[in-house]
Amino acid sequence: MLDRKEKIPYVLELNTSPGMTDTSLLPMAAEEAGISFEELVDEIIKMSLSD
After folding, report:
1. Residue 44 three-state SS
2. Residue 3: in which H helix or E strand, if any?
3. DSSP H or E run through 8
4. Domain ranges of the chain
5. How does pLDDT run along the chain (51 residues), one tens digit per residue?
6. Are 10 and 2 in contact (CB under 8 A)?
7. What is the phi-psi region of residue 7: left when phi exceeds 0, alpha when psi lies from -120 to 50, beta otherwise?
């Protein structure tokens, strides 16, 4: 979450190994944002390979 007034991010947890099943929150959130599962996986791979 972001405190828009102060521009301070607040993080509840960093899940370095999120669930990737049909009932997992990350794929569901991506779908709500208009990102397909395939696009999500591609982006995760690209980010993990970047410097």
Report:
1. helix
2. strand 2-3
3. strand 8-9
4. 15-49
5. 777 788 888 776 778 888 999 899 999 999 999 999 999 999 989 988 987
6. yes
7. left
Biggest distance spanned by C-alpha atoms of the chain:
36
Q: What secondary structure letter does DSSP report for 23?
A: T
Q: CB within 8 A of 31, min separation 6: which ones?
A: 37
Q: How open is the CA angle 32-1-35, to the nearest 5 degrees?
A: 20
| Count of Cβ atoms closer than 10 Å to residue 27 Cβ | 19
Name which of 11, 25, 33 is nearest 2 in CA terms.
11
Distance CA 37, CA 30 (A): 7
pTM for this entry: 0.65
